[in-house]
Amino acid sequence: MMSDSNVATSNVNAIVNMNANVSNVSSETRAIMKKGSKTFSFAAMLFDRDSREGAELLYTWCRACDDAVDNEPNQVRALAQLQRLRANTARAFRGELGDDLTFTAFELLHRRHGIDEEHAQALLDGMQMDVEGALIPDDATLELYCYRVAGVVGLMMSKVMGVANAKAYRHAIDTGLAMQMTNISRDIREDFERRRTYIPASWNPPTTYDPQAFAPLARRLVERAEGLYASGEQGLRYLPFRAALAVACAQAIYREIGRKVVSRGARAWDSRTVVSLPRKVVLAAQAIARVIASRAIFNSAAARS
After folding, report:
1. How many CB atoms lie within 10 A of CB 285?
2. What local confidence, expressed as pLDDT, does residue 14 receive?
3. Given CA atoms 221, 242, 32, 130 in this order, what sign does their dihedral have?
4. Is the terminal CB of the chain with fewer CB neighbours within 10 Å at N or C?
5. Structural domain of residue 274, as residue ranges?
6. Final residue of a structural domain among 81, 115, 149
7. What are residue 240's phi and psi, to 5 degrees?
8. Residues 86-112: pLDDT tens digits?
């Protein structure tokens, strides 16, 4: 599941009342994303206002669903909660808000950006894999899990950013897969303590917590993610300029997390691997420069053709 610090569902439920205007909703969802994910909040500053607000609305729904399931004390209640989330999500797509305030934000997201319900429900399928304790036997199942919990977020964000070219979608999925694999590498100890493992059984992960044994597996995850980040970078050319800046920034920071996990080796899980604010600023500046340079090259080539 999502690995950033939890935001209580009760706080998320308080984001909006039925008569709230869009600016009030945006103010509250921005606070939720800022508290829940410093990386996404930092990168989102580069979006135009409409895309930033859409990203905040989407994050709020994802966080609310994740917290609602994680806060249940057992599997039976978590599965029942998932069914409620599925029903409420479907109602949001139909505009039937009832009195569930959390999903008012998601209904607004769908109304403004045309989010596909199948992608939202696929994310809940990924949460169900978590609840049921689904084993990850091989690389294909790892990719399926990452697609459900993160790849579809890339597809929904494509709608938020107003991406019209379908060629962008594969790259959006790959960015989501890469970020989730980075999360898995960073959170190996935390997941192990929660009796969850996302490293494929075919990789022969240890059955007890052994940092020395997990370190090469984390490296393997990060190396796999690197190829996916490269695909994600190729997709930046399909995005509006401000959106490309924001996504490039998020990609760069997440890549840095994975690289730091690898560099820390067996000590990677002694404390949470983070990227400092000064380093984020440097990575953002480098990402912005790459986007500007690549656009200049592309425009020059297009002018000559």
Report:
1. 12
2. 41
3. negative
4. C
5. 135-305
6. 115
7. -55, 155
8. 999 999 999 886 566 578 878 889 999
One domain, residues 106 and 139: no
In a domain, 66, yes or no: yes
Report the CATH number that the domain containing residue 207 is assigned in CATH.
1.10.600.10
Tokens in use for 254?
């997440």
**Closest listed residue to residue 239, CA positions, set 126, 162, 153:** 162
pTM: 0.88
The answer on 271 and 141 residing in a single domain is yes
- Our count of domains for the chain comes to 2
Domain membership flag for residue 125: no
Q: By the 8 A CB rule, do 30 and 39 touch?
A: no
176-233 pLDDT, tens digit per residue, is 999 999 999 999 999 999 888 899 999 999 999 999 999 999 999 999 999 999 999 9
